[in-house]
Design a protein that fits this description.
The chain has 460 residues and is mainly α. It has one domain. It contains 18 helices and no strands. Helix 2 runs antiparallel to helix 13 and helix 14 packs antiparallel against helix 15. The protein is globular, with a radius of gyration of 21 Å. The protein starts with 9 loop residues before the first helix and ends in a 10-residue tail after the last helix.
């Protein structure tokens, strides 16, 4: 029998509002994913704005500098995303089972984890920036601005950690709109600050870093304040603020492997970046533009796939396994369709999209960027599929398989990048990542379709 805290009041009303355990599946997935999609567009917009402003108004070296920091800065963020994803998994299962008293305790424990994580990542980002940049073989002409960016962004990443925590908690309740509103605010503020720091105060790459962290910290504070004001059932008292060993253990059981896996993936991408760096700053710029375009091109189906984690978590908590299987089939069909559409559009418009980041006179970088974009676009369907299956497995708490899948993907990316770069030059690097997608998909796809995850006992 489900342990509802009470049969009326805001807790139950909010449960019905965000409940994905009943109703039309396709409609629920699309409606939940739409705010995530819009939010991802704004996230990309302000990340892309950094590159566009630096590339257009400062120069190709500044663009290459921020590109050289990409894997390091994103690595820190990726660890935070992995750990905070555990909040969505645990809280969505508790919410799906109607255990609202435990939801409050889980939120309190999530705050403790976020605080410690933000401090640790900040320490690594600030003090590890220069050694990491040197280890990656960053070209000397872009070394100093690259180090400054990582020190500023990484040292103050705690704002991003708490925003991700709030976003993960809200998504677990089926609310993907509130994180969107604050992400839009953060994105617009970041763009304004980018322009001010670069064009008015001539801050260059460090100025872009300051613009990013200021907007992130302010967004995190406002999102947290609104979350507790909007959802009274999430407010925890002194008693609930105490560490709950069982909840903490479950969050760390899921979050630590995901965080470590994301960290390892980022380390792998750092190795790839090191290989790219060996070809000079022009190829670094090509890699930067190609990566940005891939993020833009995959945003539609990536958010639809990621939304399935919440759907799977709630239905796993409610023991509706057939609904999870039905939802996975519908999600996969939509993701495949959108990924194929993205492939066609990007292949046809590769040159025009690359021009958003570069000046027309930089012909060699433009040609290289278009080449990378077209190569990777041919494999988007595999990327979409692995996102669906990994999201489903993450939602039901099967972290082990997602870790195995990610490790296989990582080894393929790193090993093939090094090997193919030696055999055929930098173009070989553009093929290494898609091959990794395919091999990782085999792992997660086989396990999910094998249905062994049904035998797991949900967290209760």
């Amino acid at each position: 029998m489900r342990n509802y805290e009470r049969t009326d009041g805001p807790a139950v009303r909010e449960r019905k509002k965000g409940d994905m355990t009943e109703g039309p599946i396709t409609r629920q997935l699309v409606l939940f994913a739409l705010p995530l999609f819009v939010g991802a567009l704004f996230q990309l917009m302000y990340n892309t704005t950094d590159s566009v402003i630096l590339g257009k108004f400062v120069g190709a070296d500044a663009l290459a500098a921020i590109g050289a920091t990409g894997t390091t800065a994103f690595g820190l963020l990726n660890i935070a995303i992995g750990v905070t994803n555990a909040f969505t998994v645990v809280i969505s299962q508790l919410f799906g089972a109607g255990k609202h008293d435990q939801v409050r305790r889980a939120v309190a424990n999530a705050m403790w984890i976020s605080l410690v994580l933000g401090i640790l990542l900040g320490f690594v980002g600030f003090f590890g920036a220069r050694p990491i940049m040197r280890l990656l073989g960053t070209p000397e002409n872009i070394m100093e601005p690259a180090c400054m960016y990582v020190m500023i962004y990484g040292g103050l990443i705690i704002g991003q950690v708490f925003y991700n925590a709030a976003s993960a908690i809200l998504k677990a309740l089926g609310d993907s709109k509130t994180p969107l509103y604050f992400l839009i605010f953060c994105s617009l503020l970041n763009i304004v600050l980018d322009l001010a720091f670069v064009l008015i105060w001539e801050g260059g790459v460090p100025g872009v870093a300051w613009a990013t962290v200021i907007s992130q910290i302010l967004s995190a504070v406002l999102c947290m304040a609104y979350m507790f004001a909007r959802y009274p059932q999430l407010r925890f008292g002194r008693e609930e603020l105490k560490i709950d060993r069982r909840l903490m253990r479950e969050m760390l059981r899921i979050g630590v492997p995901l965080g470590i896996t994301n960290g390892l993936l980022s380390v792998g991408m750092m190795v790839v970046t090191g290989v790219v760096n060996s070809f000079g700053s022009d190829i670094v710029a090509v890699y930067t533009v190609g990566g940005k375009v891939s993020q833009i091109a995959t945003v539609t189906f990536s958010q639809l796939a990621f939304s399935f984690s919440v759907f799977a978590g709630q239905n796993f908590g409610a023991k509706k396994y057939d609904r999870i299987l039905e939802g996975s089939r519908k999600a996969l069909r939509m993701v495949v369709g959108l990924s194929l559409l993205s492939t066609v559009v990007i292949i046809l418009a590769a040159n025009q999209v690359a021009l958003l980041f570069l000046n027309a006179g930089e012909t060699e970088i433009l040609a290289g960027s278009a080449q990378m974009i077209r190569i990777q676009a041919c494999f988007y369907v595999f990327l979409g599929a692995i996102w669906v299956y990994n999201s489903a497995l993450r939602g039901v708490g099967d972290v082990r398989t997602t870790v195995y899948s990610s490790v296989v993907e990582l080894c393929a990316k790193v090993g093939l990048s090094v090997l193919l770069a030696r055999l055929v030059g930098y173009v070989g690097i553009w093929f290494a990542e898609p091959i990794g997608w395919i091999l990782g998909l085999l792992v997660s796809g086989i396990v999910f379709c094998g249905k062994k995850w049904m035998g797991r006992a949900e967290f209760s």
